[in-house]
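Table S2 (continued). Query chain:
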Amino acid sequence: MNAAANYLRYRLGERRPVAAMVLGSGLGLLVEAMEDTLRVPFAEIPGFPVSAVTGHAGEVVAGRLGGRDILVLSGRVHYYEAGDAAVMRPVIAAIADLGIDRLLLTNSAGSVRQDMPPGSVMMIEDHIAFSGLNPLIGEASEGRFVGMTTAYDAALRTRLAEAAETVGETLFGGVYMWFSGPSFETPAEIRMARTLGADAVGMSTVPETILARFFGLRVVAASVITNYGAGMTGAELSHGETKDMAPRGGARLAHILGAMLEHGGFDD
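Corresponding output:
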C-alpha cells in the first residue's frame, strides 16, 4: 500500500480532485487563486521529499480553482538537490494511487527565443532530456520501457490552448530542454539548445513527465518564462530574477488554468 496516498486520502476526506498540478519556482501565486484550501506540508506525508530551494513552499494544497477540485503540489524537489533523477517518484506514485490521472506540470524557464520574452507562458509540446539522466534507471519491471512519442497529451494541450484563447492570453508552444543544474547554462549551451530545436531551458519537469507516463498519467505542462538565456542580453542570471519574474507569467498561467478548469478541460 502507498502510505503517502493513504495519508493524503485521509486528509482529503470527501474531496475528489480532477487533476493534480506541480508548481515551479515562484509560482505560488496559483495557490492564492484557489478557494476552500487545505494545506498539508510535505514533511507530514510519509516518504515525500522536502525541498530546500527558496520559492518552493513544499506543501500539498487541495482546493477549488475554476469551480473544480484540484490537488496542487506547491513546490518540487529537483535532481540537483539530491543527485537523484527519481526524487519525485514518491509524489507521482501517490498522485496515481489516489486515482488522479491528469497531471499539470509547471516550471520557471529561460527563453532561447527573442520573440518569447520574460513574462510569457509556453506550453511544452515536447522535451529534450539533455542531462542524459532518467528517473527509471534501476526500475526492474518491463514498464521501464515507456513510450515518449506523445509524452504531452494532445487533447489536454488543445484544451489548454483553447482556454488561453478564451481569456485572451498569449500562449506560446515549444520544446523544453532539461539541464541538470544547479548552475545556469553558458552562452554556448544556449546557442546549442537553439540549434538542437529547444525554445526554453530549465532544471525540472522532464523527470516528472517520464515518471508520470510510467504511472499511466496524462501530462500537460507549461513554462513561465522568467529570463532570456545566458548570453542573449549580456546580463548574468540569478535565482532571484527567477523568483521576481515568475509571478508575472504566473498570473497569466493562473488565468488560463482557471478557464481550462471552468470549461471542464480536465473532466473526461
